[in-house]
Structure formats: structure tokens, C-alpha cells
Amino acid sequence: MQVLPIPSGATTQASPPLGRLIVLTGPSGVGKGTLMKALLQRHQELYYSISATTRSPRPGEIEGKSYYFISRSKFEQLVAQGEFLEWAEFAGNYYGTPRAAVLNHIHSGKLVVLEIELEGARQIRTSYPSALNIFILPPSFAELEKRIRGRGQDSDEAIARRLNRAEVEIAAAEEFDIQIVNDDFETALGQIEQALFS
């Protein structure tokens, strides 16, 4: 291979790294958290944006790794200061994505992945239109209900609320760039990888 000399006075510039924001959403119980966990284990180059929430930690959740657990008043203060890329109230608690960390990682060339609820995903589409939006669907509504009940975390009343909410969320799937049905876990994971890396 012949190497051509660089003309004098010419400078070489590396093109800036291409970072991107990836948004993963879908109804509660669809398995998006499990898919996200597997994705991060397989691809350590991804940056997972940790959300802030006003809800209490669940067993096994770790501050600064699962979520940033903050008070309602602190959350509202951060909203007023414009510190969230998106935020929403869900099941009586606030959830939000801290803006600065996400933008810093995108600008440094990283693929940044968010796992958020429908309202937050809609806000991202407005505030950050170049994001890739992926919606995870259940194979059927009956299967979704089975998964939610199988977790054994919620009261019947809370399950009913989640299922009502899920109907609204599933109806919005067409708004997203890509829809992936989480019927077979490995297939769904492979489809997400294809969307991110192809």
C-alpha cells in the first residue's frame, strides 16, 4: 500500500466521535429492564443513564446504580432549574433523566441508553429529536398481565392501574421508530442490538 505524503501546511483532523441517544420504552412488566440489563452486560461500551426518582428503593436496588433516590421537594427544585432531559409522574412518583450527564456522554461519542416511561419518551422526542426510539411490546395483553402478576410485587389495585396504563402505552407503540415484541428474549435482544449497531 502506498502512503501519500501530507502536503505542507495541511492539517489532519479526526472527525468528532458519533454519540447517540437511544430510548427504550414499553409498558410495565414487558421485560424492558431485563433486556436493558442483558444489553449492558454484553456491551460495556454503552452508557446507561440512571434516572432520578421520588419512589422508595425496592429490595436489591442501589442508590446511584439503580436510581438516584431523592425527595419530592428536591425533584421539583431540579425540574424548576431545567436539570432534566425529561421527567414524568408515574404511579404517584416522579421519574426523570438528569440532562448534563447524558449530553456529556453523547458529546464524547458514546451510545447513551435510557429506559423510561411513555411520557418521558415523548418529551425526549421533542427535546432531543435525533434520539432512536425503541418500543418493547408484549406478545399479548394476557401474557403481559401474567408477567406483572408473576412478579408478586404489587397489590391487585396496583396491578389494575398498571394494566390500564399498559393499554394506553401499547396504543402509542406506532409513535416509535422501532417496535420489538419481547416474545422470545434472545430474539428481542438481538433485534435491539441490530438497531443499535447495524
From TrEMBL:
Residues 19-197 form the Guanylate kinase-like domain. SMART domains: GuKc. It holds the Pfam family Guanylate_kin. It comes from the Bacteria. CDD domains: GMPK. It catalyses: GMP + ATP = GDP + ADP. One of its GO terms (molecular function) is ATP binding. ATP binds at G26, P27, S28, G29, V30, G31, K32, G33. InterPro entries: GK/Ca_channel_bsu, Guanylate_kin-like_dom, Guanylate_kinase, Guanylate_kinase_CS, P-loop_NTPase. It is found in: Cytoplasm. One of its GO terms (cellular component) is cytosol. Its EC number is 2.7.4.8. Keywords: ATP-binding, Cytoplasm, Kinase, Nucleotide-binding, Transferase. Belongs to the guanylate kinase family. Essential for recycling GMP and indirectly, cGMP. This is Guanylate kinase. It comes from Richelia sinica FACHB-800.
